[in-house]
Amino acid sequence: MTTRPPLPTPQEEDRRFLRPFFLLVATSLALTYAYTVLGVPEMREPLRFVVFTVLIGVSAVLHWLFIWQHISERALLPYLIGQGLLVFALTVVGLNLSVGIGLSMMMIGEALGVLGINWRGLLATALYLAGAGLGFATFLTPTQIVSWVMPAIPTVVFVLLFVWMFRRQGEARESAQNLARELDAANRQLTEYAAQVEDLTLATERQRMARELHDTLSQGLAGLILQLEAVDSHLSRGHADKAQSIVQQAMDRARTTLADARRVIDDLRATDQAPIDLARAIRAEADRFSAASGLPCEVEVSVPIELPVVIGDNVLRMISEALTNIARHARASRVQLQLRSSDQTIELLIRDDGCGFDPGLIGQPGHYGLIGLQERVRALGGTLSIDSQSGHGTTLKMNVPL
Fold first, then answer.
1. What is the DSSP string of 199-212?
2. Which of 41, 222, 243, 300 is 20 to 30 A from residue 60's alpha carbon, by CA?
3. What is the DSSP string of 87-133?
C-alpha cells in the first residue's frame, strides 16, 4: 500500500504563500535604498547615510517578523504604527518623493491585507497617506505637496486591486486546504470503516460456516446416532425387519448428509442455487424423525410451491434442528409441525409435549443449535419466540417476511 505524505500544516502553507510577497517587499526596500543612496546628493553626508541605512534595516527586520514569525493580534497595532513612523522618518531623512510614496504604498498594502478592505483598512490607508504628506512637508513646497496626490491616487487604487486579488487567492487557498484536510480525514475514516467491514465480514462468515457445519454434519451425525440406537434396540428384541428398515433409512440419511455437506461447499464457491420443493423436503424430514425416534409427527404445510431459496433453505435447517433437539432431549410423546404463509410472511410452528427446558440457557456454550436458530431468523429479518416450561413441553414460533 502506498503511504500518502502528510499534509502541510496551516503555518507551513502560510509561509509558502507569503514567500513571494516577502520577496516583493524585500526587493522594493532594496531598490528604494539603492535609488536613494545613489540618486540623492544629501546621502553623501555620513550621518544621514547611516541613519537612513539603519532605518531601512529596521523596517526590513520588522517586515520579516511580520511575514515569517506571525506577529500576534496584540502586537499588530504597534507594528503598523511603528512602520508608519519609519515611513515618515525615511521620507524625512531620504529627502525623496519616491521613498515616501513607495514605502507608504507598501504599508497600505500590508494594512489592507491584514485588516481587510473595510473601514479599518481604509482608515489606515488615510493615516499612511497623511504621514507621507507630513514627511514631504519638510522638504517640499505646498504646491509640490499637492502635486504628489495626482500619482498617489491611481497608485492607491492599484494597491487596493492588488490586495483584493491577493486576499481572494488566499481565501481560495484556505478553502483548498480545508477541502484537502476534509478529504484526508474522510480517507482515513473510510480506511477505518473498510477495516471494520472486513472484520465484520469475517465474523459473519465464520458464524455462517459454524451454522452450516452444525446443521449438516452435526445434525446428520446426530440423526444417524438416533437411528443406530433404534436399530440396536430392535435387534436386541429380535425385530430384524424393523431394524433393517431403519438401517436403510440411516443409509439414506448418510447420503443426504453427504449431499448437504457437498452443497454447503458448493455454496461457498457459487451464488446461484436451485429452488427446492420445501413441502416435500419437510415431510421427508418428518418421516426420518418419526422412523428414528418412534414419535408421531403431525405435519401441516401450506406454502407456495417455490419460495426464495434462502428462505426455504433456512426454514428446512430450522425444522431439522428443532426435530433433532426434540428427539435427543424432549422425551416427548407427540410432535406437531405447521408451516403456513400469507402474502407477506411465512410462519413456522413446532410444538412438543415433552419435558421442556429453560429458555435462559440460550446463548450459553453447548447450545449451538439454539444459537443457530436465532442467527438464521435474524439474518432473514424475522422474529423467533421459544416458549418452554419444565414439564409443559416447548413451542417454537418463527415469522419471516416474504
1. HHHHHHHHHHHHHH
2. 41
3. HHHHHHHHT-HHHHHHHHHHHHHHHHHHH-SSHHHHHHHHHHHHHHH
Neighbours of 397 (CB within 10 A): 15
152-185 pLDDT, tens per residue? 677 777 777 777 777 777 677 778 878 888 888 8
User: Cα 251 to chain center, whole Å?
Assistant: 53
Judged by DSSP in three states, 40 sits in coil
* Cα–Cα distance, 269 to 251 (Å, whole number): 28
Helix axes 278-293, 240-269, angle to 10 degrees: 140
The residue that leads in pLDDT, 207 or 321, is: 321
- Tens-digit pLDDT profile for residues 17-39: 456 666 777 788 888 888 888 88
Q: How far apart are CA 213 and CA 1, in angstroms?
A: 36
What are the pLDDT digits (tens) for 229-287?
887 887 888 777 777 787 877 787 777 777 666 666 665 555 555 666 788 888 888 88
What's the residue count for the chain?
Answer: 402
Q: How crowded is the C-beta side of 204, counted as CA atoms within 13 Å?
A: 9
Span(s) in the chain for CATH 3.30.565.10: 273-402
What is the distance between the alpha carbons of residues 249 and 187, in angstroms, rounded to a whole number?
Answer: 59
3-state SS class at 188: helix
For cell 425416534, the residue is 293
Grid cell at residue 217: 454434519
Assign 379 a pLDDT band (cuts: 50, 70, 90): confident
Reading the block at residue 171, the C-alpha cell is: 481565501
Quick count: other Cβ atoms within 10 Å of Cβ 335? 25
Q: Which residues contact 95 (CB under 8 A, 6 or more apart)?
A: 40, 42, 139
Residue recorded with cell 477495516 = 195
